[in-house]
Amino acid sequence: MRMRRKKHGAERIAACSAILIEQNAAETVDPSVFFPVSRPLHLEIGCGKGDFAVGMAAKHPDCNLIAMERVPDVACIALEKAMAKKDTRPDNLRFLIGDAQTLTDRFLPHTVDRIYLNFSDPWPKKGYAKRRLTHRGFLEAYRNLLVEGGTLYLKTDNEGLFDFSLEEFAACGLTVERLSRDLHASEIAADNVMTEYERNFSEKGQVIYSAHVRF
């Protein structure tokens, strides 16, 4: 279902400029410009309404996190959620409105330590495989972004996408270090931060698939 267009969306996004990386701010994202302290850089691609990004930034103050979202109206919700923290707002969280197709243009090579893919669109129709964020084309782009030994953390409720992803990881010579076909019943759950979708899926009894992959 397409999200209803946010009233005064542009103005609301502009009001969150303190934590927004402006798309035309620079040719590439320079973390030192946007974060007051240099820390390992994590990137969430497709942050949705921001539950995961806000939760992870608070839980891991030793890392800087950029939450990227393609749809401005969705990013608006995430931005306002982070801004609402006021005095407890983490200084290690910034948002970027943009498409995953532009990643190699937006980031310098080998500057990201970890990438998160949470409940990405499975693009199940035949012929759409190249649009999946775990397709080998994207994986090679991530390889360019990640530092040597960098990691990718995947979570999905879609078994078809999960199996496809495992095949792509293998084809690209990547190492799957941790894997679960029922995340919330596994030891990985101890450090898990839920997304808004994940919480809804779990309440309905849907299992969550997870993989930690090293490049």
Task: Present the secondary structure layout.
Elements: H1 9-14, E1 20-21, H2 31-34, E2 41-45, H3 51-59, E3 64-69, H4 72-83, E4 93-97, H5 103-106, E5 112-118, H6 136-145, E6 146-156, H7 159-171, E7 175-180, H8 196-203, E8 209-214
Structural features, described:
This protein is α/β, with parallel strands linked by helices. The chain has one domain: Vaccinia Virus protein VP39 (Rossmann fold). Helices cover 31% and strands 22% of the residues. It is built from 8 helices and 8 strands, in the order αβαβαβαβαβαβαβαβ. The protein has helices at 9-14, 31-34, 51-59, 72-83, 103-106, 136-145, 159-171, 196-203, and strands spanning 20-21, 41-45, 64-69, 93-97, 112-118, 146-156, 175-180, 209-214. It has an 8-stranded mixed β-sheet. The mean pLDDT is 92.
- Tell me the structural class: alpha/beta
State the domain count. 1
The Cα radius of gyration reads 17 Å
Quickly name the level 1 CATH class: Alpha Beta
- Oligomer description: single chain
The CATH topology? Rossmann fold
The biggest beta sheet, please?
8 strands, mixed
State the low-pLDDT regions, or none.
Answer: none
What is the molecular shape? globular
- The number of distinct helices, counting runs of at least 4 residues, comes to 8
- What is the CATH superfamily classification? Vaccinia Virus protein VP39
- The number of distinct β-strands equals 8
Distance between the termini: 34 Å
Helix content range: 25-40%
SSE string, helix = H, strand = E?
A: HEHEHEHEHEHEHEHE
